[in-house]
Amino acid sequence: MNTRFSIIPVLALLASTGLSSAETPKPNIVAPAPMPATATGPSETSESGTLKVCASTKEAPFSTADEDGFENRIAAILAKAMGRELDYQWVDRPAIYLVRDGLDKKTCDVLMGVDSGDDRLLTSEPYYRSAYAFVSEASDDFSGTRWQDAGGDGLSRFATRLYSPAGTMLKYSGKYEDNLAYLYSLIDFKSRRNQYLDVPADRLVQEVRAGNADLAIAFAPEVARYVKQSDGKLRLSLIENDLELQNGQTVDLQYSQSIATRRGDDELMKEINEALAASREEIAAVIAEEGIPSLPLADASDNDKKAEDHASNAETTGDDGAGESARN
After folding, report:
1. According to the UniProt entry, where is the signal peptide (predicted)?
2. Is residue 64 part of a domain?
3. How far apart are CA 16 and CA 11, in angstroms?
């Protein structure tokens, strides 16, 4: 559940942790509410010589208006391999709005870095796989590789995104309640009701480096660039296990990443998959240069099953589209 493109799975997760109602905070509904993708089929640009990418100016390190995000670089590689001219439809809002305000309106045709098998979209073969991770001070010698390690002695402050499995890890580690005041200080104690708020990825890393947080917990691609920029002062440790809930559900903490189009845009997707295969080494070099720790790519059928499970969880817990999944 990489939540860059959707917070629906996380709201469902909060409602299904297996904890008592007294232990589980009620998530505020974010408005306006991006809805699941509805548009299908090609657009004029998807059938042209242009690769029209939906992108946010507010999604560093993935995408920036200066096109120095690592997904901007991968998009340029992809367009070149496809023999198309790269063009962006920029949105000055978080990536959760890209499906609704881009793909659905057919003002753009492609999303970069979507969870493989996202059932709202047509997704490509995965081009890398990573996981949630801990960020720690290298001098602390923290060696945790399991989510339970967040419950260790001496750890009390955790920098996390607001809509991520990190909150559930902290609940099950017994650290959530004591961390709430600190977490909300990262958004200046603003209310999340009727607005989308989150903690920027670089802020998570800054909090650890400044000594304000003992650990940051985030999807590794969100923070790898900033850990690398610390010149060895910080450590990025992948979480190797999944999170098993008291109700029997499992929250996956490792995700394969793909490129997405609207469902039914089959010819464009065929081109994308061919270009990915031809550019695999160049793309891998970008991922490595960014400092993102990669995992072996999972079987595509496993990814599809995970995405279906996430969607099913959201439906059964009654969420009505409080977020949109496009981080992706």
Report:
1. 1-21
2. yes
3. 9
Provide the whole-model pTM: 0.85
122 and 16 fall within a common domain: yes
Question: Please, what sign has the CA dihedral across residues 37, 196, 67, 116?
Answer: negative
Tens digits of per-residue pLDDT, 84-121? Answer: 999 999 999 999 999 999 999 999 999 999 999 999 99
DSSP 212: S
State the Cα–Cα distance between residues 287 and 127, nearest whole angstrom: 10
With beta carbons less than 8 A apart as the criterion, state whether 127 and 166 touch: no
CA distances from 259 to 71, 156, 178, 225, 247 (A): 10, 37, 38, 21, 32
Does residue 315 register a pLDDT over 60? no
Q: How many domains does the chain have?
A: 2
Q: Which domain holds residue 33?
A: 8-129+256-316
Residue 325 in this model has a pLDDT that exceeds 50: no
Tell me, yes or no, whether 23 lies in a domain: yes
Question: Which conformational region is residue 174 in: left (phi greater than 0), alpha (psi within -120 to 50 degrees), or beta?
Answer: left
Question: Tokens for 315?
Answer: 């439906």
Q: Under a CB-based contact definition with an 8 Å cutoff, are residues 110 and 102 in contact? A: no
Point out the domain boundary residue: 215, 244, 273: 244
Instruction: Pick the last residue of a domain from 201, 217, 244.
Output: 244
Tokens 């198309």 locate to: 84
Looking at the DSSP bridge assignments, the partners of residue 50 are: 85
DSSP 296: P
Q: Which residues pair with 52 in a beta bridge?
A: 87
pLDDT band of residue 4 (cuts 50, 70, 90) is confident
Instruction: State how far the alpha carbon of 108 is from the alpha carbons of 18, 48, 300, in Å.
Output: 40, 12, 26
Looking at the fold, whether 202 and 105 belong to one and the same domain comes out as no
pLDDT at 84: 98
